[in-house]
Amino acid sequence: MTEFNERKLHFLKPIKKHTELIIVLLDTSASTFARNSLSNAKAVIKNLTEAAYLKRQSICLMTFGNERIEIILHPQRAPKNIQPLLESIAAGGGTPLRKALIQVSEFIRKQAYEFEQCKLYLFTDGRSREPIDSLPMSCDIMLVDTENSAIKLGLGKELAQCLNAQYVHL
After folding, report:
1. pLDDT tens digit at each of 170 positions of the chain
2. Cα–Cα separations (whole angstroms), residue 87 to 34, 81, 91
3. What is the pLDDT of residue 49?
4. What integer pLDDT is reported at residue 133 of this predicted model?
5. Exposed/middle/buried for residue 2 (C-beta within 10 Å: 0-12, 13-18, 19+)
6. Which of 18, 16, 110, 25 has the alpha carbon at shortest distance from 58?
7. Fewer Cβ atoms within 10 Å of its own Cβ: the N or the C terminal residue of the chain?
8. Is 121 exposed, middle or buried (0-12, 13-18, 19+ CB in 10 A)?
9. In the prediction, which pLDDT does 95 show?
10. Span between the terminal Cα atoms of the chain, in Å
11. Burial of 48 (C-beta count, 10 Å sphere; 0-12/13-18/19+)
């Protein structure tokens, strides 16, 4: 008979998924300079982050503008004070909206193992020359229209319809 060596067995606990990731995608193109659109959007993002902090939710902050998409705050528990980070965000250049949405879609797919669901808050004035139709977005989207000009073009509403997103004007 073979001798059985007693060993301690360790079981790995299954990875607990966080419930929700809030992704904030902020348009920082040159058109957001008009009539304090960017600063108004930053104020709303600050309030959104404070609410997420109290609910112990995770948040991610991305910007798109000047033909770049940047992750400013990687997915993590919402910070208590996001103001210094928001103040460091500058605006300028073109609006790579389609590229940003494709990148966010891929980002959400990669985060699926850690988060049960994602919610995207898209802050934009909708001014982009790129076609937005046929973009597969696998999350709930809230489009926050930051257009604040004397003559409203209504591009945010059109974009919300294309993305099947909820719409709210800032």
Report:
1. 555 555 555 666 655 556 889 999 999 988 887 778 899 999 999 999 999 999 999 999 999 988 899 999 999 999 999 999 999 998 888 889 999 999 999 999 988 888 888 999 999 988 887 877 777 788 999 999 998 866 677 788 988 888 899 999 98
2. 17, 12, 11
3. 97
4. 76
5. exposed
6. 18
7. N
8. buried
9. 86
10. 77
11. buried
Closest CA to 29 of 106, 125, 116, 102: 125
Q: Phi-psi region for residue 107, left (φ > 0), alpha (ψ -120 to 50) or beta?
A: alpha
Name the residue among 100, 142, 136, 146 with its Cα closest to residue 121.
142
Given a contact cutoff of 8 angstroms between Cβ atoms, the answer to whether 119 and 166 are in contact is no
The Cα 91–Cα 71 span in angstroms is 15
Q: Is 37 exposed, middle or buried (0-12, 13-18, 19+ CB in 10 A)?
A: buried
Sheet arrangement for strand 18-27: 68-77, 58-65, 18-27, 115-124, 140-145, 166-169
Q: Which two tokens stand for residue 135?
A: 């973009």
Residues 6 or more apart whose Cβ sits within 8 Å of residue 92: 28, 29, 30, 65, 66
